[in-house]
Amino acid sequence: MDWGMRNRMSQLIQPDGHCFFLPIDHGYFQGPTHRLEKPGETVRPLLPYCDALFVTRGVLRSCIDPANSKPIILRVSGGTSIVGKDLAHEGITTSVRDAVRLNVAAVGLSIFVGSDYEHDSLLNLANLVNECEEYGIPVMAVTAVGKELEKREARYLALCCRIAAELGARVVKTYWCKEFDKVVNGCPVPVVMAGGPKCETELEVLEFVYDGMQKGAVGINLGRNVWQNDHPVAMARALRAIIHENASVKEAHELFNSVKNGEL
C-alpha cells in the first residue's frame, strides 16, 4: 500500500482501529431530508464526535466549512431518486479528478447485489477502484438494498461484502444483522455498520452498534439515528463512547441521558 493510500486510511480508521463516520449524503436521492434541510447547521455541533463525513460534492462545497471540517468520504454514485422507478439504477456522478480537487480521504458508492442493475453497479465499483488506486484514494462500497429491507440478513450481506472486497473496495459499509459475525468474518477488509431507517429508541441503536463492534465491525456510518434524534449531540457522544472508549450499552445509555439532561 502506497504512502498516500495509507495516509488516507489512517485519517479514516483511528489509531485504536475504530471509526465513526457521519453520513449526510441522504439528499442525493431523498431531497431535503427531515432535519437535514440545512446540512451545515445539522453537522456543525456533531463534528467534534465523528471521525469523517460522508457527503456529496454539492453539499461539501456549499455547506461545509473547509477550515473546520473532518476527513471527507465523497459520495460519487447517484442518478436516481426516491420517487423514481428503481433506486438501484445508479451511475457514477463525480469524477476522480474532482475528488482529488476536493482533497478527500476516500470516495464511496453503492452496489446493488441481486437487483436488475447488479452488473452495472459492480462494474461501477470495479472501474472506480481502477481509477482511484492510481491516485491513492480508498473506495468505500455501500451494500445498498434499495427499498427491499427484507434482504438484510447475514447470508445476503456476507455475499455483498465479499464481492465488494474482491473487486477492490478498501472499506465496506453494510447493515447490522443477526449473526453479524458471519458477515465480518467473510470480508477481508474493514466493515462499518450502516444505520438504515431511524430506530424507535436510543437503546435499540446502542445495542446493535455494541453487538456489531463485538462481532468485528471497525465502526459505524450512522446518520439518521444521530441527527434525527431529538438530542443528536447526546447520541453522538454515546455512540463514540462505544466505538472509541469500549463503553458498554448501559454506560453509553447513561452517558446519553446525562448529556441530554445537561449534566455533562
Major beta sheet, specifics? 8 strands, parallel, barrel
What is the CATH top level name?
Alpha Beta
CATH superfamily: Aldolase class I
CATH architecture level-2 label:
Alpha-Beta Barrel
DSSP summary: helix tally: 12
SS-based class = alpha/beta
- Give the overall silhouette: globular
* CATH topology-level fold name: TIM Barrel
- Count all strands and give the number: 10
Mean pLDDT equals 96
Tell me the strand percentage band.
15-25%
Name the poorly predicted regions.
Answer: none
Side-by-side strand order of the widest sheet: 1-2-3-6-7-8-9-10
Order of helices and strands: HEHHEHEEEHEHEHEHEHEHHH
Q: How far apart are the termini?
A: 42 Å
Number of domains: 1
Helix content: 40-55%
The quaternary state of the protein chains shown equals single chain
Q: Using only CA atoms, what is the Rg?
A: 17 Å
Your description of this structure?
The protein has helices at residues 3-12, 27-30, 39-43, 57-63, 96-101, 118-135, 154-166, 180-185, 202-214, 224-227, 232-245, 249-260, and strands at 19-23, 52-55, 72-75, 77-78, 91-92, 106-111, 139-143, 171-175, 191-194, 219-221. The strands form two sheets. Strands 1-2-3-6-7-8-9-10 form an eight-stranded parallel barrel, surrounded by six helices. A two-stranded antiparallel sheet has the order 4-5. The longest helix has 18 residues, at 118-135. The protein is 42% helix and 15% strand. The chain is built from twelve helices and ten strands. The chain is of the alpha/beta class and 264 residues long. The chain has one domain (3-225): TIM Barrel (Alpha-Beta Barrel), CATH 3.20.20.70. The radius of gyration is 17 Å and the shape is globular. The model has no long low-confidence stretch (mean pLDDT 96).
